[in-house]
Amino acid sequence: MLMRIYLGLGSNLGDRRSNLFQALELLKERALTITRVSPVVESPALLLENSPADWDRPFLNLALQCETKYKPEIVYGWIKEIEQNLERVSGPCWAPRPIDIDILTWGDNEVSTKTLTIPHAELRKRNFVLTPLIALEPRLRPPGVIDETLLESSQKLLTHIPLWMGIINVTPDSFSDGGRFLDWKTVGPQARGMIDAGAHIIDVGGESTRPGATMLTADKEWSRINTILELLLEARQDYTFGPLISVDTYHVKTARKALELGIDIVNDVGGLCLPEMIELAKTSAVDWIAMHQLSLPANPKVTLPEDVDPYDAVEQWLLKRIDVWDKAGLDLNRIIFDPGIGFGKTARQSLELLSRAGDFRRHGLRVLVGHSRKSFLNLAVGDTVTDRNQATINLSMKLCDQGVDILRVHDVPMNINAYRTRSHTATDRPSNSRQ
What is the CATH T-level fold of the domain 163-422, as seen in this structure? Predict the structure, then answer.
């Protein structure tokens, strides 16, 4: 019988991405079918006190969803051979290593032997394990004494690793960067800068939804982004573990064409409400972002009532949508919720939602927040791009503290650099060695 298992891969020595890729290729040579690969996340090294200074090397980590008919001990043997092939040698606990492969889960089974503990003993305690796993199956409930999903476990951690989504608006009228990225000559360098900085997702949109924007037909929207998506999908092949590609749309026709091209995520700013869009989501194998909104394009005159709690109002909308999606047969592991900052909310309401955005995760969905450079920031800062960029970074760090899964921003390098600087001083101490 085929068993679905999850493996964790990590490297903090030598060419880390190359090490991960080589391990992935060697695993493919075994009787192991890799069905999904998570984004690669970076985490500071876990170090015991008084560890040598040159051990302080950040890890790159990913998770693999696999299927196999072989027993855990056989797979563990393959792993040890692969680690040896990639020059993993025995050494002091927590010393740098070119590759580290762990069995994280084995279906609904528990294993406890001299060499194996499955689920992995540290699975629920490490952000660098949970973030990649949550990107694949957030509602996974590993067996054991603790009965909770991966998403629930992650909410208990003191530190969090988010995924970063970079914004590319192929539009002449977007509020922040309209007219800047209309062809590959300008989009290409922008996308490569995001990828080099560490973006996990690049979100491409062809229709502005800012207040006063002109609505487009699906054909017009597609004419703007078709070539860009094709070239972006081609360009990411130059990268080891390139980013996921997302299309920002509310048109079913556009989403269908983008899926045919091979994109990874549909960012439905319409909220995954249309029956045709729900059916498309059901028959696809990609992730779907559903954003709360009251009108498209955004209309400052159409907002939540001033006398209601904006969090409660958005939460009630979400609960109704979850019920609809569940009854329609959608895999809720593949749905990401966006509370829609600025869409049908006043500036005050947007700020209130931002202060509690991470709380939406309690409903079993990953949460994405798009707060970058939006007009509600004018309540606190000036109207220049510099002012809004700094305010965006400050909010990104606060949203990270709340455990928000995906942060959607314009300036990827600035936000990721700020996060890395802060996270390097906020590492957990290991309680015991890895498997």
Answer: TIM Barrel (3.20.20)
